[in-house]
Amino acid sequence: MPVNVTEHPTAQWTAQQIIEAFPWDTAPRLLFRDRDAICGADFQERVGHMDLEEVKIAPYSPWQSPYVERFIGSMRRECLNDVIVLNEQHLHRVLRSSIAYYHTWRVHRSLDMGAPEPRLAQRPEVGPVRKLPEVGGLPHHYERMAASWVVPEV
User: Fold this and answer.
1) pLDDT digits (tens, 9 = 90+) for 55-101
2) What is the pLDDT of residue 145?
């Protein structure tokens, strides 16, 4: 999943992001968005060509976009509050890693403590449970792994 970041987004940049977010006719039917000026004419034209129906939330109503607000809040609390971002490249790397963790290992109450990308149960025969760092070591996940062996030095 690409994560694009810019200090100064424009309507044209935002329009390109909507195209990149939904390649190959994978766009949803509805697009819920706020009334930010960044979603200008270029953006609205692209959305129109993608056959997306725009649903604008009421002004000053962030609670009307709960999924986005929840995700942004989770990224802030669970990742960005604990990281000193060095530059744009570092931010990209941290966000990609955090999003991968969010979808594969982080448990979600709404999914009965599962993750959006389901995992197979691992049998005890696979090996002992190991603690593996994610997102640069902030969170961890636990996984059964076969005992690793070390190549002796010659």
Assistant:
1) 888 887 767 777 777 888 888 888 888 888 899 899 989 899 888 88
2) 80
Q: Do residues 97 and 134 touch, judged by C-beta distance below 8 A?
A: yes
Handedness of CA 137, 110, 23, 40 (dihedral sign): negative
Has residue 154 got a pLDDT over 80? Answer: no
Residue 122 lies in a domain: no
Burial of 93 (0-12, 13-18, 19+ CB in 10 A): middle
Q: Which domain holds residue 13?
A: 1-64
**For residue 83, is it within any domain?**
no
* pTM for the full predicted model: 0.56
Q: E strands, 100-150, where?
A: 129-133, 140-144
Q: How far apart are the first and last CA of the chain?
A: 42
The CATH number linked to 18 is: 3.30.420.10
Tell me, yes or no, whether 18 lies in a domain. yes
Q: Is residue 20 part of a domain?
A: yes
- CA–CA distances in Å: residue 84 to residues 61, 62, 128, 150: 30, 27, 34, 34
